[in-house]
Design brief:
With about 700 residues, this protein is mostly beta strands. It has three helices and 56 strands.
Length: about 700
């Protein structure tokens, strides 16, 4: 892979950013790929980190992660805090390494020479949003929210050069030394102004966009412009003369860098559009407010001198804030999330060079002998050191074993000598309850951190700056978790009905089912027993050699006497654990009726024109009585006492009202009785009507 840092800097022409990026508060985690080597739920498992996604999900301190899936010692960044600065937003640099830093929210400009940091000038505006420097050393500063541009001499004398008509935001500045003109990209009216040394400002180009967010000046005098809204990159070769280089996806061209006709372009798709600051006055104090913007989707494009445009990097979970073309053709990329700086090659391969404490990298200059990076949240400047760092660390993301676990061997693959350490704890974020980092080991072996749910792995490159880490694997055994049966239910299974409208015939099979909470997803074995409600002894339903793993069972009860029964279901995770670690649990159902036998009609007769019968059920109550005459439909009837509420019921009905309309002769009466379980019986009797000796 191409080395990410060059010895000679590419010239920077205007550091432009979106103020709203600075104020973003949503912190989203890097997508974390964790591969679990998992044969059974509580057998030995492992965390395997062996690709770019899982290796880059952790933290880097003097280490770099490459897209081909390895980690090496990298760049070391030394933080220099900017006093009273909420954000370090933009920079301009001189050939001798002097760095000017535009900040907010006091509108100060700092100067960094070597390790000496001092306030260079004060604009008394909310934010210095853009800087540019002329060959004679004059520094120009664009500000927010009043659209003012200032000129500062090398000695630090500052004066207002221009207040740009209709502008509130000066997002970008670029100084054209050939024409001695300063170009300013502004919003919210999307204009580019040209400003001469006397401060005369005139509209150079009036775009359709709301904001001109970025400017880049090539050595041939072409001015490249990045817009909001339509996300266009324009090329300007004179006042009012623009051609579209490319219409990019997204809604912001946040940053551009150019080198001999080749462009590096950052196009973001932000969920909240560019916002304008508003000011309110209370007494003598001016306050600025702006909505918070969420993280967007970022894309990095290369455009060659012939206009060929190619996307070489994309991230759906982060937007990009700064870009720099290197002499070797690679591109340095500032990320507006997780404080990272990337190096991206034209073939799409990449490396994470820096992982800073702040969330947003807002400006960068990694060329030359004195690389510098600026951040927001809060404002800081980082000196970047080349070569092997004194402290090269890679720390994994917090790894979650889901449950308390005992950790075994840690193995890694790579070249050279690494020192590997671990620490463990029971909180998702490491705190003072976690164990200390273990004693470092230089060869694979057992982990010396205590049992816990969470673990981190760290690799140090300090012994061997040429070492390479390609994969890390940590073995662990989670503590077995008990599965619990939360409910047991039983329902009678019915056979198919031959008549569409008829009730299905009852069956002696009962569907038993149960719900289980299984925290560690062990393979479970179930055993079942039953007893009559009035008894205490349970009897087995399954033989010991029958292994049931489903959470349901069809129970055949044909051979059981009618009655109320209780089912007990027990579970064991013996299929996933050895005998010493296996756990069990059990639960039982509410009593339920097993009733496979129909009622009987031991007495049925006719006396003095009255049909009488006695109906008996073993469990009771008798749930239904019906009478059919001569094969017609059954009609419901009530027992003698008017209520169906006993195991034995008597029937006594006068036949005259039911038979008087029928022709004289013999008639078939069928009495049907049904119990609560749906079992039924029918008994018939032949009756002569009218009775002999009576007139119809």
């Amino acid at each position: 892979m191409t080395q990410p840092v060059n010895s000679n800097p590419a010239p920077r022409h205007g550091q432009s950013r979106l103020l709203s990026l600075v104020l973003a508060s949503a912190l989203l985690s890097v997508a974390f790929w964790l591969v679990l080597s998992r044969a059974q739920a509580t057998s030995t498992q492992s965390f395997l980190l062996d690709d770019a996604a899982s290796l880059s999900a952790g933290e880097l301190d003097g280490a770099a992660v490459y897209s081909t899936g390895y980690v090496t010692a990298g760049l070391e960044a030394r933080r220099i805090e900017l006093p009273d600065a909420a954000v370090a937003f933009c920079m301009a640099r001189l050939a001798d390494g002097t760095t000017y830093i535009g900040t907010g929210d006091e509108g100060r400009i700092y100067r960094l020479r070597g390790d000496e940091l001092s306030v260079f000038a004060e604009t008394h505006q909310l934010l210095v949003s853009s800087l540019a420097v002329a060959p004679n050393g004059t520094l120009y500063a664009g500000t927010i929210p009043e659209g003012r541009v200032y000129a500062i001499t090398p000695g630090g004398d500052i004066h207002e050069l221009a207040q740009l008509e209709g502008a509130q935001h000066v997002w970008a500045l670029a100084y054209d030394a050939r024409r001695n003109l300063l170009f300013a990209g502004t919003g919210p009216e999307g204009r580019i102004f040209s400003i001469d040394a006397a401060g005369h400002a005139q509209t150079y180009y009036d775009s359709r966009a709301g904001h001109i967010l970025s400017l880049a000046l090539d050595t041939d005098g072409a001015l490249y412009v990045g817009t909001s809204d339509d996300a266009l990159v324009l090329r300007l070769r004179g006042p009012g003369r623009a051609e579209v280089v490319h219409d990019f996806p997204g809604n912001e061209i946040t940053a551009i860098d150019v080198r001999a006709g080749q462009l590096a372009v950052v196009a973001n798709d932000m969920p909240t559009p560019v916002v304008a600051l508003t000011t309110t006055s209370s007494s003598s104090t001016t306050h600025a407010t702006t909505p918070t913007r969420r993280t967007g989707k970022g894309s990095l494009f290369l455009v060659d001198a012939q206009g060929r445009t190619e996307r070489i990097y994309h991230d759906d979970g982060a937007h990009f804030t700064a870009v720099e073309l290197a002499e070797d053709g690679s591109v340095r990329l500032g990320v507006g999330k997780d404080g990272r700086v990337l190096s991206v090659n034209s073939d799409g391969s990449w490396a994470t060079l820096l992982d800073l404490d702040e969330r947003q990298v807002l400006a960068l200059s990694l060329g030359g002998d004195d690389p510098v990076v600026l951040t927001g949240d809060s404002g800081a400047v980082y000196r970047v050191r080349r070569g092997a760092p004194e402290r090269g660390l890679w720390t994994s993301k917090v790894l979650d074993a889901q449950f308390q676990a005992r950790f075994g061997q840690v193995h890694w693959r790579g070249e050279g000598t690494l020192e590997v350490l671990t620490r463990t704890g029971n909180t998702e974020e490491p705190d003072d309850t976690w164990s200390d980092w273990s004693t470092p080991v230089t060869s694979p072996g057992p982990v010396h951190s205590p049992a816990a749910r969470f673990v981190q792995i760290r690799a140090r490159f300090t012994r061997d700056p040429n070492a390479v880490l390609r994969a890390m694997e940590l073995f662990y055994l989670p503590r077995n978790q008990r599965a619990v049966i939360t409910s047991v239910a039983a329902g009678r299974q019915h056979g198919p009905s031959k008549v569409a409208q008829a009730d299905p015939p009852p069956s002696s099979r009962y569907d038993l089912s149960w719900n289980v909470r299984n925290p560690d997803e062990d393979s479970l074995r179930y055993r079942m027993r039953f007893r009559q409600e009035s008894q205490t002894r349970f009897r087995d339903i399954l033989r010991e050699d029958e292994v049931l793993t489903a959470d349901h069972y069809a129970w055949e009860t044909e051979s059981l006497p009618d009655g109320w029964y209780v089912i007990q279901v027990s579970l064991s995770d013996e299929l996933s654990n050895d005998a010493d670690d296996a756990l069990s649990a059990q639960a039982q159902s509410e009593p339920f009726r097993v009733d496979n036998h129909a009622p009987t009609i031991p007495e049925l007769g006719v006396r003095a024109g009255t049909l009488t019968a006695r109906v008996v059920d073993s469990l009771g109550p008798v749930a239904g009585l019906e009478l059919a005459i001569d094969g017609q439909a059954f009609r419901p009837l009530l027992p003698a006492d008017g209520l169906l509420d006993q195991a034995e019921e008597r029937v006594s009905i006068e036949l005259a009202p039911r038979l008087r309309e029928l022709p004289a002769g013999d008639h078939i009466l069928a009495l049907k009785a049904r119990d609560a379980a749906g079992n039924s019986v029918v008994r018939e009797i032949v009756v002569t009507w009218p009775p002999r000796g009576q007139q119809p």
